Amino acid sequence: VASAGLGFGWCIAYLVFEMIGAVLAAVLFKVVRPEDFGGEKGGAAAEVTSEFLGTFMLVLTVGLNVLGRSPGGAFSIAASLMCMIYALGNVSGAHFNPAVTTAILASGRCHDLSPAKAGLYVASQIIGGIAAAFTYSAIYHGDSFKLAPGAGYGYVEAAIAECVFTFVLCYVVLGVAVSTTTNNSTMFGLAIGSCVTVGGNAIGAISGGSLNPAVSFGIAAGHRLADGSLSTAVLYTLIELIGAGLAAGAFMVTHAVDKDSGKLAETV
Fold first, then answer.
1. How many C-beta atoms surround the C-beta of residue 73 within 10 A?
2. CA distance 209 to 201
């Protein structure tokens, strides 16, 4: 009202789109939590939707921060991940990252994550990342950015950086969300999100700090696969999966007590 003379009509437009967002949130909430509406908990539809939605919001936040040249991108992206983990953690496990899904599957500590389910998770994550990339590109009138090492760095430096900090992310996920000994049912989201803050600030200028194949392929798709983005996404993904495998191996050694106790995680 105070700025009515500058264009009151935009107030109505904003209101309409905010209401649309609220309706979408309500519909998706019903999809991922059917048990709250008389249905059965879980199911492939709820889990796949959860993984798609969480990954979509993560990659969308990445793209908007980069294109908006935000000085606090790492903190914003980490907060996005943390919020979605708390919102959807008990629906699908809130992986939102094929590297995380790979690490959990390779660890053998989550009995309800079968290879078939892991494949569905990865597919929904990649699709969510690509959809988010087209969304942030549309918001910025078709603008995008390529996936590549930072200025002054090569693929060797970027590969080392991506491997190390994907390892950190996956190892922390396994430690705080999967282990029956060191898991934390209240602070796990903050711990996992903090890994993105750490990695984003530490290696953002070196590799971009992807740490996630869904982010890598999303960025490549948003850039219309130009400037070698697809081959870079494939390379980043291979390196990130190596980091995930190393994290699973280290976890199996450092958390052997979980198996000794005869307990396996029922959910991630």
1. 19
2. 8
